[in-house]
């Protein structure tokens, strides 16, 4: 496991060993049509270095059309460690996370980012592995006017940026908890929220003991820069979830996540990218980094001894495009900001080329799925 | 383009340049949990070398259970060139393909293969790019008693093997054409057939001018070795298609294909593998190899000059497992047989671990999809 924590990134290893002539082919097969490296402003590069986080920029191109102007925007993906130890006072942990992400957002603003998205439950350690309720539920806040939403509203106004802020939400009147993403317009207004539609029961992901499946469907947010949606973490394993966001008009689907190496790493480059291909849209996969240690020991339901950490969150945030291409990933180990320029016109261009939505036979699948979901479903199995 | 034809395989390039210590991590991230190399019998290795095709063998392991015995079987995937020039007489082309695939099937038998699957429309060049009907529709045969089905029945009986034979089908009475896969039991009986559910309208894939969308749904075949289904070619871009085969009980889904480098290669490792992950099953992606030249020139709807070939079919056949791991691919350039041993118990073990089908909320999606497929669907879009 230690070697897998230290391994910095697939991309770096490929670049340092494979000769240039073959590297182009390797990249084409692994990552698709090459993304352009973005020239980022010197002040941003210097700030990122000073503040000790990785900064990378890439761009996807679309063809120039006659009747539609390009619809170019920049998204920013933020991945980071839990700043303070998990046993620091709750308010101090939250404030430290605000400060860290605030300085990363400032660099995003220097890079001209229009929509910035943070990782899942970004203000807290991913403490659901412990199955303790105290003090972790204290990190839950109101989506509409909690301190984190107010913090994001300030960021949004200051930088003229849409901010997608995934938090642990508490509905004040009912005391219900949710895993939620708040969408703040670049005007600073809260546009709304969306909730995690699928809740894992896997390994140390004991989230179903904290909150239930989302009840807000597949809302899409029409921002000034494009139509966005948020598919939180485990929802990426469910193709129907991505699909329904797309059918509701999403042009970019963010997937803020928290996931560890031993469990899911080989699936990570596959699922969000498959969703971009299948739905003719952009997808943005974001994962936290680092290993979070908890004071109380806990077991993982795998017959192994009790321990104090969940494993290594491997970062590797990336953006995938509808043509099957993707950016390189951020590091597996460091805080990072990925700035990606995209022209949303690419979505329709690829749709016109591949036509998955036109060849999808959706009305027939609606009937098939209705039958298959019924308790008396008879599978169509041929025997000899 | 020429360099991309010559590039033999991603796996080979990685192995020849990346130091052993890092290679293990690269492989883990790219391919998941390592597959075992299969010891194949010397006679098979020698026959493959003599007959000039690549032979590779890998195995996926499952845990030993107390109440279920292991359900171990071997599948074989065959990828090959069109043997004769495309202007050779039709019967000679078919016979040459039978001979070639027959000798590969013999090696598969030596390797203990239980289910053997060929590439899409394996008895013919992929001539649909020409938009000519003559002589290509002459390659169409009866699924029940055409010469190719009879050939496969002999193979099946001789080698005690299930044979999946994707052909261009002609329904004799109506003269209708279909893109079909015939499933022949290891007893030699035709178990049935299944048809390509989604037809491309992409680049040189003019197939919609030859045959229509399949009308046979998502049949699953209960063979002696396991429940199998066939998702033909372009159906791999449609997550709902894989999903419905899985809901009907498929444990292994074959994806016989014909696809070219410039268009789809970066999607190739993603889609079948995503389907294995999302549906807790094995998927087998098979693509032909080589460049097929046609006497008549044709254009590709891309503003470029008329030409005589479709581009390079890049092979790279592989098998993906429900745990997100996959085998290395066959070569991009050579005929090949991939022998893969799998224990079907892995499907349920991974389902019990990840529970995608239990957390999938299918009844709700059936309603959502029914609404979304209706012409008066109102997307759920929030504006400021």
TrEMBL record, chains A, B:
Keywords, A to Z? Cytoplasm, Hydrolase, Phosphoprotein
Q: What class of enzyme is it?
A: hydrolase
What pathway does the annotation place this protein in? Amino-acid biosynthesis; beta-alanine biosynthesis
The protein depicted here goes by the name Beta-ureidopropionase
- Regions annotated as coiled coil: none
What the protein does? Catalyzes a late step in pyrimidine degradation. Converts N-carbamoyl-beta-alanine (3-ureidopropanoate) into beta-alanine, ammonia and carbon dioxide. Likewise, converts N-carbamoyl-beta-aminoisobutyrate (3-ureidoisobutyrate) into beta-aminoisobutyrate, ammonia and carbon dioxide.
* Matches recorded under CDD domains: ML_beta-AS (cd07587)
User: Per the database record, which ranges form the CN hydrolase domain?
Assistant: 73-344
